[in-house]
Amino acid sequence: MADLYTVENLRLSLADMTRKPLLGAAPRLEILKGLSFTIPKGAVVGIVGGSGSGKSTLGRVLVRLLEPSGGRVSFDGVDITHLDESALRPLRRRFQMIFQDPMSSLNPRHGVGTIIAEPLRLHQFDDVAGRVARALDHVGLPQGFAARYPHELSGGQRQRVGIARAIALEPDFILADEIVSGLDVSSQAQVLNLLERLVADLGLTLAFISHDLSVIRRLCQRTIVLHQGVIVEDRITADLFADPQAAYTRELLDAIPLPDPDQVWA
After folding, report:
1. Can you give the pTM of this predicted structure?
2. pLDDT tens-place string over residues 69-113
3. Which residues contact 179 (CB under 8 A, 6 or more apart)?
4. Domains and CATH numbers, the chain
5. Which residues pair with 6 in a beta bridge?
């Protein structure tokens, strides 16, 4: 299977504003420390780690919302590491992001139809109305929802709108960043089922960021475990749960509540 993403020795450092001196530049804080991995086309890859592990920062580098400090990121054979915005624009349609908080990522002054149509118009798609209708159908929302506003929707419905906006552009890759963490258990299951179906029906490649290994186990074929900006495991998900190699992975697994106190993950 060909690789959609190839990441080599990826590094990213940001100014540490909590330690800004009175004179001179703020010291640099290293967030990502030499990461190397691939994401094959059609794969569902989990990126997991605790708070401060660098997982969301890594996601933003993959879709070039952040520019790396070093290393190389290739998307479908194109080096996007330091492309300027004019060179990135034709590629942006092909990698999309779904955000953790749909309410903050959806314009409250626009109806759902306008929200989904906006990136289609930006990328100069034809038949915008038809594409909006198909996107709503793909995520299981009635066509009448096009006239509704974000505040009129439940959390799960708002997240479906975010997914519809992403898939309307017919991307190759979607980054989902903690998109079920704010939902109740029932809505979480529905969104995960929807993502599974969309991956199969649309041939998507998906990277799913989460702090919750139980969600990763449910959805992802392969899991990358990040700790303090370093990859500590990159393995088939079933193998990782059966025999975690890193102490940090075992800590994450031990933190998952089990319905049966005698149950073990293996």
Report:
1. 0.89
2. 999 999 999 999 999 999 999 899 999 999 887 778 888 999 999
3. 98, 99, 100, 102, 159, 162, 163, 191
4. 1-94+201-266 (3.40.50.300)
5. 38, 74
